[in-house]
Amino acid sequence: MVIELQRLYRDGWTDGEILINGILVCRSIELRWANNERNISCVPEGVYPVAIIQHPKFGECLQINGVKGRSGILIHVANDARKELRGCIAPVFSLTGNGKGQHSRLALNYIIENLRISDEMEHFIDIKSKK
């Protein structure tokens, strides 16, 4: 299964839409683009494998693998990109402005449930600019 993230780059943050099978399932918040610098940049555009993991700090979340020059990138619960993210992605059900959103846990659970019920063994995220 492929999760599609269509981004809009803002001055101080990045927000986007997350689609599964072409259907909008939630929004996303991230840090701004900063040349893929660890802990301060959003993830570069591209297609990456993702896996459901149990993280000691964030609980059940998704791990993004294969990002050049980076490791430990997660899709995890957060409602404020600047305060809670260090280069990861947070799904949210609604954007409240300036890199903030609401209902992140519900949005993440919804994505994970869609991956679990998929017949496909491998999962990917396709990150690109919104057209």
List the helices and strands and how they pair.
Elements: E1 2-9, E2 13-20, E3 23-31, E4 46-55, E5 59-64, E6 73-75, H1 81-84, E7 90-92, E8 94-97, E9 100-102, H2 104-117, E10 123-129
Parallel strand pairs: 1-10
Antiparallel strand pairs: 1-2, 2-3, 3-7, 4-5, 4-10, 5-6, 8-9
- What would the principal axes of the Cα set say about the shape? globular
Number of domains: 1
Terminal-residue CA separation:
22 Å
Query: Structural class of the secondary elements?
Result: mainly beta
Mean of pLDDT = 96
Bin the strand percentage.
Answer: over 45%
Written account of the structure:
- There is one protein chain.
- With 131 residues, the protein is mostly beta strands.
- The chain has a single domain (2-129), classed as L,D-transpeptidase catalytic domain-like.
- The protein is 14% helix and 47% strand.
- The relative contact order is 0.28.
- The mean pLDDT is 96.
Defining traits:
2 helices, two-stranded antiparallel sheet, L,D-transpeptidase catalytic domain-like, 131 residues, 8-stranded mixed sheet, mainly beta
In short:
This protein is 14% helix and 47% strand. It has helices at residues 81-84, 104-117, and strands at 2-9, 13-20, 23-31, 46-55, 59-64, 73-75, 90-92, 94-97, 100-102, 123-129.
